[in-house]
Amino acid sequence: MALGAEVDRNYRYLIGGLVVGRGTPWVVTTIEGLDLPDTVYDDEERPSDHGGWAGRPVLRPRTIVLELVARSDDVDELEDLRTTAGAELIPTEDVRPFVWKRPGRDPLLAWVQVRRVSSPIDPLGSWYEHPVTVELRAPDPRVYELRERTLTVGMRRVAGGFGFPLSFPLEFTDDLEGDEGDLGRAVAYNIGRFPTRPAIRLTGPFRSATVENVTTGQAIRLLEGVPDDGFVDLDPDARTVLLDGTADRRWWIDDRGDSHLELAPGPNELRFVGDTYAPDASMRVVWRSAWTL
What we know:
Layout: E1 12-15, E2 18-21, E3 26-32, E4 39-41, E5 44-45, E6 52-53, E7 57-59, E8 62-71, H1 75-88, E9 96-100, E10 108-118, E11 129-138, E12 143-145, E13 149-154, E14 185-190, E15 199-203, E16 209-213, E17 218-222, E18 231-235, E19 240-243, E20 247-248, E21 266-274, E22 282-287, E23 290-291
Antiparallel strand pairs: 1-2, 1-9, 3-8, 4-7, 5-6, 8-11, 9-10, 10-11, 10-12, 12-23, 13-22, 14-21, 15-18, 15-22, 16-17, 16-21, 18-19, 19-20
């Protein structure tokens, strides 16, 4: 089943493997934390002068709190619901998907950890309702689309210019899957309103290479290369470099360049450039568009 496929109607939520909200025995009475997360600014005061310089806003981790109530006419079924929820809502080191659907929008995604679950039992209360409070923490405050977008492109033939002959017209679309071949140039669309960070795989053979986002001016340069059939995975968010998926190669990054690369809202022109042209080398980029709320 595709990620978030259970969230097929408004006001339904997926917490890891637990589906709650409309059409389920779990009623979501309130939810907090799907608005703009806490933001800090690195403002700087003007020395010996009035005011200061406006700083760059930085989003802090997002906290999401859901108030749930399980309802059933069967006491045993109610206990089963409580047990099932308890098995899903456990703290984990890895983040898990939290998916929700609101009117007028496609389902949205955040990656969360369960931080607190309050499941009181009131012996004097109703036997047919069971309240649960769930607190989630999203280390990454972005809100993503469910769709994972990809593009694949070959290495650019000449650094700093186009290879020839060119074929016209040159088309750049959000469904581009390497149609530009060895031109090493493609456009990635972030349809959201906040920068998102892609995952990048560079497949050899190549000696050294640079991944550029011409739109933002960012570039990640690898000082080393990979052999035929080898690959290196770049995660600009985690700032990791893995050779063949396992071996740490962070020191391959040229520290004179950028350590991360983002896709700004809208179209982003990406280039895959090698110091020496390698016709069989390729770059695959995977991303989700992002928002803050």
